[in-house]
Amino acid sequence: MTDGRTAGSARAFELLEPLVQAATVRVHAPPGGYEPHGGPSGPTWGSGFFIAPGWVLTCAHVVGEGGAAVRLTGREVGITFSSGGSARHGAATGTVAGRVECVLPERLDERRPGRRALWDLPDLALIRILAPVSHACVWLTDRSRPRFDEVAYFGCTEDLGTPEITGRTTRLRGTAGNGAAIRLGGDDEIDPGMSGGPVVDLGRGEVVGVVKARRHTGGGGLAVSVVQLRTLPMPPRGQIGLYRRVMQAHDLHHYDQHVSDLDTRRTWTDVHGELPAPEDGGPQGRGRLTPGERTTLCGLLAELPPPGSSEVVRALAEAARGEEPDPQPPAPLSWRDGLGLLHDPPGGAGEAAAMLRYATDVSVADYREPPAPGADEELWDWVRATAERLWRPLRRELGERHERGLAEREQRRRARAERGSHGPARQAGGVHSGASVLLEVWAHGWEDVYDWRVSVLAGPAHPGRLTPVESGVRATLAGLPEALRAPLAEAFRRCDTHEAAALLEVAVEPALFGLAVDEWTLVGGTPLGVQRPVVLRHPGGPPPAPGRAADRWARVQPGPLLDERIDCARGRPRAADPDRLAAQPDHTVAVHCRAAAEEPTLGSLHAVREAGYGVVAGRRPPADPGVPCAPFHRALREELAEAGGARALPLRLQALRGRAYGADPDAYWAAGAVLVWDDPARALPEDEPLQGDL
Asked: I need a labelling partner for 631 at 20 to 30 A (CA). Which of 151, 249, 402, 585 fits?
């Protein structure tokens, strides 16, 4: 141990070291070849650790060692690990092949930094083991923010000439990279080969980080927060994502170990019960679940189908906590992540009480598919039994909460069945009514740079609620896609459901309606407008004629739709006529075909808003000015007729973009098509971010 550690942390290190060593691995070339240095498996590339049966977490730059090809995903590597017990007690070691399942960020597959350069955050790689082997797994934190306290970090070193897993201690000194990285103090050295190893909170006995880099000038360095695993690629609609699958396996592994009496080795749950109590009360403090209760709760939650969206988790955590949980990204994606939002509830309320309220609500929640028979009832039975050791008013509250939740769930089921028996609902074909992602972009004075903000707009269920995700200043138009890559991805994680991709609302002045957000590619190479519905909004504040706008919006939604060319007459530009605009029927869609930033279209866009039009169609004109606009107008008229009502337009435009992206010649006319969609039920904020240098 490093000098200056407390007696409590020294004891915690002694208890945790065998468990962490047993789960930490050496990463190297695939088995089968021979390298002249470093033994039959070749030199050490770095370290990693088992987070679930068959899954190893490490750094992306570790699997990029040894002259990797352009792509890292799919690359085979070698994993040397302890096959049982701990290295201290003479456990055998084994070597097995693994395959890199994915790397974060995904762009590292195509573009990696130069030699000796720091790899982009979060710099993580997830490796799937290619053979069934028996091994230990670490316990991962559920907190989105680490505690700045004493930690131990582990990895592969060769101090005595042969590779071995060793551990050292230090303190966390802060965060970097918007919380994605953790600063490790300089109490000890991080040796070559330790990259990719686990960082363990000694007070709570949980892995909080992955060793990333050491300082060139001495001790200390950086680690990646393990919470960044939540940024793993989102799955296609209707599928369970990799993050949820791995975390489910993690929780079930520890639950199975806890309830099994076939193995006499101490588990993480056993050691959690022996850790010295931290000054803040720690896991054993009054009003908290015991380690055994926490492990059981995580296991029971893992046996349920995952939540339908991140917002479901946040809503239940808010109801159990009594206040809105920490909005710090990344978004919670699993039921377990919701527990991480319930630590240290406000007003001195008990953490155990908050978690039992949350578990009660989860037991009566709507899941993305039916649970295994009795799984939700088993969770409630556990809640009721665990509450027996707590105060009587809480037991009564939980019982009433459960009965109320059962009744509400039954009402929702009956409503869905009734809609099904009477045909499709009136809103069928429209955008999802839940939370949406709001992107706001402002011109920075008279300069050719822009400020931006990404937020989650709660929608009609919580009118006016806006949760900021991230903001920035002084970005160029060309630089906006890269600046917004991570913030938009985080916002989509919060809003997407397993049934539908969330709506992206882009609120900009009409001069920026030509911003090709629908053509941006953030992940996977597929344009945003193909992945989800994308619409334009005027900046916040009511329109000049709010009553007229409400009337037009209510009438245009059910249709049928009429189209009216506003800035064009037989291919020639024309200015908007206010009298003609006012005289059009309320179910009219105003259509523009010319560049939004130029007159007369710029003036026309302002004019249609003043006249109360909430649905406006347009396009970014093709690069060749000689291409006529008649095919666009003709095809759009047919599309409006087939749509029936305006509520279907965002999804129909998304489908058209997908067809054009898939090289359907009948959809080429929709290239560059845009839709202004000023839904009065989704009120936008009226403020603008402060301008100036930060």
From this structure: 585
